[in-house]
Specification:
0% strand; mainly alpha; 85% helix
Amino acid sequence: MTLVDVLPHVTASLNGLAGLMAVTGVWLIKTGRRQAHRAVMTGAMAVSAVFLATYLLHHFLHPLHEFPGIGAVRPLYFTLLVSHVALAVIVTPMIIVTFLRARAGWATGLLERHKALARWTFPIWLYVSVTGVLVYWLLFHVYV
């Protein structure tokens, strides 16, 4: 197995892990565990950064991978893919700004700007993470 063969599996795993960490982070803040929330969300950012690097590397080394599915799964795949890519482009800067606002808020005690954006960022980030894993699964594991 080559690096090009392994990277899609690595990126899907990292994408799923980032989503799970984001869900955990939201649960932690809702249960009042601020320090744990901060640590988990910092980890989610790090995992997301590694995901993005490996994703870009994969697409640099192997730009196209044709979808092998036929029949009803094709429109499902392309609908998920289009919504996933469009929202990934939108949410990436939102995630960065939300994270930076959290860091600034922790330093100043003003977290309202972070909270206001996080309410929008989290559901989009979760959708992108889940659909990323679904797109990967359909692309590499469904042959109907």
